[in-house]
Design a protein that fits this description.
This protein is of the alpha+beta class. It is 37% helix and 14% strand. The strands form two sheets. The chain has a two-stranded antiparallel sheet with strand order 1-2. The chain has a two-stranded antiparallel sheet with strand order 3-4.
Length: 103
């Protein structure tokens, strides 16, 4: 593996990563590392790869892939204050992004 002494955030306008180099005195980055590890694993699961940082969970994989029964019945709907499935129809995804992105 390569270097692991950095963190990043996405710039709110350009969506490009801004990197921060860590040194051995940095102690408040565990939450960020957990966040990015989980986000990476979710993308891996969606692309049909095994997660790297978490244990394989078939229910979570099915939810992320949109193949879980909850996704078939309630795709993108909020039920009891939670999203039943993280997969959404393309028109909803397009509404989240700027219209210019699709011209």
């Amino acid at each position: 593996g390569g270097p692991k002494d950095f963190i990043y955030v996405e710039h709110p306008y350009s969506q490009l990563p801004l990197f921060g180099v860590l040194d051995e005195n940095e102690t408040d980055t565990n939450a960020l590392r957990c966040f990015y590890a989980s986000r990476y694993d979710l993308l891996l699961m969606r692309a049909a790869f095994d997660p790297v940082y978490s244990s394989r969970n078939e229910t979570l994989i099915d939810l992320v892939a949109g193949s879980h029964p909850d996704c078939q019945e309630q795709m993108g709907k909020v039920v009891d204050g939670r999203v039943a499935c993280p997969s959404w129809n393309m028109p909803v995804v397009k509404d989240v992004l700027l219209e210019e992105d699709f011209e």
